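Can you give me the bound-state structure? Components:
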Amino acid sequence: MKKSHTDLTIGTLMGLLVLLFVVILMLFRGQKESLNTKFDKRFLSMDLSMFIDTIYSSPNDLIVKYPQKTYDYSYRFEKSRITVYKNKEGIKLGESFPFTEQKDIEFIYTTVDINYAQDNNEITVGGDEGSDNIPLVFEKTKHALLPTSKIKTEEFFD
Amino acid sequence: MNDKKSQTYTALNWVFIRIPLVIIVLIFYLMILNMHNSTELSGHNIENIILIKRLLYSPGLLAYQDTQTGRVYPGIIDIEKFDTKIIESVLLNKNNRIAANLELKNIKTGEIKRIYINEERASAWDDYITFDEFDSSFQKRHVRISQNNQFYPGTLKIKVYVRNG
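Here's the bound-state model for the whole set.
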């Protein structure tokens, strides 16, 4: 009688342990997934591709701000492809999407990386949404299209 | 004897019911999580529409540009630019993602001119437009045609194909 009682207790305990393990595993995986930025990066790269195509269709010179919340990301423009990535994760985990260049308007290949932060002097550029810094701007002239960022530098000297 | 039966029952219960159930729940959970990431993004033909606008508005492509003032007239097609070689040399289709066929008809003379972007693929992709991998759009527009410093009424048919991703 006593032995079967002990077996039942061990069985229940094992079941509870397995349940606990599974729940912790699921919570851990769920939390990891909630921090996953793959979808955001894919969306931004595709949206930027269409944005660049639209800028190309403009007959005139223009300077246009990319109207998405882009403070957390960096952008590499090269060989008719945009790669969006997080500095912390590195470019290898970035997502890219192609766009169509035009011969008469040269696309200037560059990397727009505004996530730099200097801890000692507490200079943060990318993460501050309230500032006047514009993370991603496109300047189109008759012969060139340049992606860049506009940073309000005078704030650093105040 | 009863203890042995009970132990066998417990072991079988774990092997055939509890552990497989846990594995099934975990697999479903991971599948749901992965669905979040694998949601396909689609431009819903916006890319095609942008490309059509680009062909019509960009002075480097089809739009007529006044040589003296530099002003661009998006509703007027410059017949000298309406050429497959010129369009393909200006539009750097490095990724081979886009294809198009364009037909320009001079209403006054009845003359029809056809040009292509990526001709081979334009004909091939026409059969694949029902697949999700391809988007296509068709537009017919009334335009003016600039030819030898004269302007003629015309129609422009544009069919654009874009391969997703």
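A couple of observations. The CA atoms of residues 109 and 136 of chain A lie 14 Å apart. The two ends of chain A are 82 Å apart (CA to CA).
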